[in-house]
Design a protein that fits this description.
By secondary structure, the chain is an alpha/beta fold. Helices cover 30% and strands 17% of the residues. It binds nicotinamide-adenine-dinucleotide.
Length: 347
Amino acid sequence: MKIVALFPEATKGQTENNVLDDYTALNLRPFLEERGHELVVLKDGEDDLDQHLKDMDVVISAPFYPAYMTKERIEQAPNLKLAITAGVGSDHVDLEAASEHDISVVEVTDSNTVSVAEHIVMTTLILVRNYEEGHRQSEEGGWNLTQVTNHAFELQNKTIGIFGLGRIGRLVGERLKPFNVDIIHYRRSSQEDTDFSKYVNFDELVHKSDVLIITTPLTPETDDLFDYNTISQMKDGSYIVNCARGKIVNKEEVVKMIEENHLQGYGGDVWYPQPAPSDHPWRTMPRNAMTIHYSGMVIEAQLRIEKGVKDLLTHFFDETPFPKEDVIVNGGQITSQSYAKHDDSNN
Ligand code: NAD
């Protein structure tokens, strides 16, 4: 079989720890060769991918540097049977088109939950304590204390709102609770409170949060959900942390809300498209705590992703069922509860 993989380009001299790059390629070369399969690791991202559509059987890519498997590409890939997400979050694949063409879409569920949750906690503290301004002055030789402190606060007693309390959202809540904060959440799968968080509806979440943390997948329902209209209903001086997907937030309108000083800060690691163009406005907007998309790609996560991708390929070759929690699309249906359409999504 022909397996095509798109991985981030390895940096010279930085290959001793990384496995999720085009040099080590998750150690898939020996793994696949000894089973008699061909592995093509793409060098130039998207352009190269198109050359292989006609005869590839499996595509593998990571959300950090995704191969966008659009409807058009899927239609040009008659042999494609499997799309593996080397990580978590399969929105770079057109899931409806994959279902129609009976292509399975699977991911390595839970491979980077802790990694992302830690990044979200870090980003929350960076924003609320105005770390970025303090750090900028430290680097640039400044000592204007009041310029930092005018927007530097404690986290305790703030209301943290978690949008989508799944694997990452739960860990974020558990890790933030000891900061003595009030935690509220909205998810569509259950209206139950948890031991650390109170369930509220979406409007309450938006109105009450000092820090609103987004941890849902990108779906047609969450696409562009945080636009001017939604953000303007948040408290003056509040913050958004988004390590879920960039497209859940409206790119231009969040900048506007920051510039109008309605939002005090915005942070996270996800963009649209990825890689983000060098002139993407989130790179330079005021009071941002953005990084490039690496929160779920720290070394421990990469090693779990390597193991998970090999396990998924083994199930595929052996024709044994994929672990249920890893399956997004199978048998012509979107089976993942996180991605399937819900009629009550506005409850
Ligand atoms: P999960 O499936 O465990 O949790 C998702 C939660 O969102 C579930 O509780 C689900 O009910 C809820 N949800 C889905 N649609 C909703 C809607 N319309 N309204 C309200 N709630 C909704 O997923 P997870 O492992 O916690 O990951 C969440 C997302 O985070 C992934 O889909 C991915 O996009 C992103 N992610 C980012 C990184 C990164 O490196 N930045 C890494 C992993 C995952």
